[in-house]
Amino acid sequence: MVKLEHRDFSVGEDKEEARDVSVSGQRLQELGYAVEFRREMSLFGVLGMSFCAIGILTGMSSAFQTGLFSGGPLGLFWGWNICSLFMFLIALSLAEICSTYPTMGGLYFWVCKMKPDMPILGFFTGWLYSMAMVFTGASGNLSIALYLASMAEVGQGRTLTRIEITAIAWAMNIFSGIINTIGTKAIGRMSAFNVWWTLGGTFVLVITLLVKAPVKNSPEFVFTNFQNFTGWESKGFVVLLGFLQAVYTLEGCETAAQVAEEAVRAEILAPLAVVGSIAGSWLIGLAYMLSLLFAVQNIASVKATTYAIPISQLFYDAVGPKLAQVCLVVVLLAQVMAAITNFTASSRLFYALARDNAFPLKKQFMALNQFQAPYWGVWVSVLIGCLISCAYIGSAVAFNAILSSAAISVMLSYMQPILIRVFWPDSIDEFGPFRLGKWSWPVNLAGFLFCIFVCVLFILPTAYPANVLNMNYSIVAVGGLLVIITINWFWWGKHSFKGPVKTWVTPSLSLH
Questions:
Q1: CA count, 13 A, side-chain hemisphere, 141
Q2: What ranges in 424-506 are assigned the alpha helix state H?
Q3: Residue 154: which of 309, 332, 316 has the closest Cα?
């Protein structure tokens, strides 16, 4: 007897939902995996996961100054639209693969299935991406601490020390772990709520900024004004540096794949969430960015701010201290949900890697608690996040290098499955319901070239002349991470990891 789901449907429950769950379970078994998780996430929940991970309000707010000082309004506006277009193409590429292989291994599993003769590619993708998710979660939790520090400065004039900020980040790491331990239902509901919070929060911020700003900038300023605080003389290069803000903000659409085994009809919902989250973020981000550009009072003031998060100064100048606190609360809550989602993704990745012998302590990392949460992966993510946060006490430069490496690692992870689709276009035998058809190869090629472009851009010096304080150390952090993964491959992974391990054998095969 084939058992597809450990879930009972009452007499009054929708029969169509029962059929969808059965179809999803059967597809997972066809890929070689037994059903382990309850499928309790709807399209809204899965879409919310990607929206949470992208964190359009948080990414835009935290990195806005990068584009503002590197190209100004001109670079921000055009950089946002250009990068959004290419990130949308990357999302289409990933969605096509996700529809074919709807498992929580995501990027890692796709690489393994499309290039089974090179398990090292899957191993590197899995480790690189899982570490990137942990680093991004740690970054998000520190950002929460910085937003709270900014609120203390704006509201009470009190400046928190680095130790106090780090302590708050620790608390948020632990809080993220507790929420993720509760399991699928809580995360699904939170991610669905995040969609509404992002829409409503954007509306509140846009209206507040445009109505209350004492001076509204002209369209000419918003679309053509150029600013350069980098020291570089080349205007073109300075504008390109501003692209980093857009790319950093838009990373995360693939997170929907990490909960594919917890979603109904994942082969349809997950790819729709991957693409839909980028399309929605493009439009929502554009609206939020334009309101910031029309409302910014003094770019030099933002540059010279003493607030922990520079955009706090923009809010303060535009709407005053009380409404600035309201704006910060809107962004803060969105950041909390985004940080929680990153640990959701990392814990699922640890589970998937352990399931395939690509991660040590297989039994522990595959253990699920009563809430269907892979709690070992959750709390290892928390531990690493807390350790990384300690770097902020000693050096903000060192911490920023770690965070930059996370952004590069995500793009490198995107590049692996897309690279295979470019150079081995017949790597997929049977596609899922979401398919690009004749546009598949051109879209994959464009996405692949953009990944290379961004990875190179991320490691270039962002200021001139470079010194020990403004040097871009991300290449050191990424290089160190790749060295660790390489050593791990030759010391352990090469002998234990051969590709995805089947945990389900169909009855017809088991008879032979």
A1: 33
A2: 440-459, 474-488, 494-496
A3: 316
Distance of alpha carbon 378 from alpha carbon 345, whole angstroms: 9
| Measured distance CA(244)–CA(404) in Å, rounded | 10
Give the other-Cβ count within 10 Å of 370's Cβ. Answer: 6
| DSSP code of residue 307 | S
- Taking CA atoms, 252 is separated from 138, 349, 352, in Å, by 15, 14, 18
Strand partners, 436: none
The values of phi and psi at residue 228, to 5°, are: -145, 105
Which residues are within 8 A (CB) of 67 and not within 5 positions of it... i.e. 6 or more apart?
75, 76, 79, 80, 242, 243, 244, 245, 246
**Among 233, 230, 184, 220, which Cα is nearest to 73's?**
220
Across 260-286, average pLDDT: 88
Minimal CA–CA distance to 25: which of 48, 49, 2? 2
Tokens 């303060």 locate to 316
Distance (Å, whole) CA 127 – CA 164: 31
Angle at alpha carbon of residue 358, lines to 473 and 178, rounded to 5°: 75
Average pLDDT, the chain: 86
For residues 142 and 386, give the distance between their C-alpha atoms in angstroms, rounded to a whole number. 10
- Tell me if the bond preceding 465 is cis, omega within 30° of 0: yes
Question: If we measure between CA atoms, which residue out of 231, 307, 205 comes closest to residue 470?
Answer: 231
Question: From residue 34, how far is each of 20, 123, 389, 460 by CA, in Å?
Answer: 17, 21, 37, 45
Nearest to 283 by CA among 108, 39, 492, 85: 85
What is the rounded distance in angstroms from the CA atom of residue 465 to the CA atom of residue 471? 9
Q: What is the distance between the terminal CA atoms of the chain, rounded to a whole angstrom?
A: 16
Instruction: Please report where in the chains the tokens 């570490």 appear, as a residue.
Output: 131
* Listed range (33-47, 129-143, 201-215, 337-351) with the worst mean pLDDT: 33-47
**Alpha helix ranges (H) inside 251-310:** 266-295, 299-303
Radius of gyration of the CA atoms of the chain, in A = 22
**231 DSSP 8-state letter:** S
- Mean pLDDT within 368-375: 86
